[in-house]
Amino acid sequence: MYNEVIKSTDVNATEKLEAKIAKLKNLQERMRNANKAIRLKDVEKGNAQLKEQGFTEQQIKDLRTPDFCGRLGFPSYALQNNNANIRRLEERLAEIRRTRDTDTEALERETDLYRFFVDDNRCQFEFDGKPEENVRSLLKSNGFKWSHTRSTWVRQFNDNGMRASRYVMSALDAKAGA
Fold it and tell me: Of the chain's two ends, which shows fewer C-beta atoms within 10 Å, N or C?
């Protein structure tokens, strides 16, 4: 479950991310409680607490065996990495919720110069023919790539993609108005 890839286009992405976050939070709490039990001066009491948490005899022995640096229990980097993963997934969940709440119909527009639309989790610019060099460099500098299969300039639909799309639209509109 920890290594499962969750794609933003998945219909159940929010539920899967919430479940993954919950599992990581449970793991974090379990590691913290295990380290507290290991730091107890009464080893027997600490081992009893570890057994209550569901650790086997072998796992308790491994936790009480110092590693190459002399650390007991779960090392601090494991707790820090797990916390960083929790934060990263929470931010990703918030971004997925924001993009799903975005009204893509209001964003789509068609002008004489270009057509902008959101489809298949992609921001897309479509031109009649090949755009000028300065337009292509504007698209490239804002993270858009030419898609041969779609025959459009595409970028992933997320917060940064929408920000870049709005910037490109305003630049193209200013160019058309000039």
Answer: C
Model pTM? 0.69
Burial code (b: 16+ CB inside 10 Å, e: under 16) for 41-64 equals eeeeebbebbeeeebeeeebeebe
Measured between alpha carbons, how far is 167 from 91 in angstroms, rounded to an integer? 23
The predicted-structure confidence for 129-170, as pLDDT tens digits, reads as follows 888 999 999 999 999 999 999 999 999 888 888 899 999 999
The 8-class DSSP code of residue 73 comes to S
Name beta bridge partners: 154: 124, 145
Type and span of the H or E element at 13: helix 13-39
By C-alpha distance, which of 33, 89, 34 is closest to 64? Answer: 34
Residues paired with residue 125 on neighbouring β-strands, in sequence order:
116, 153
Distance between CA atoms of residues 38 and 74, nearest Å: 10
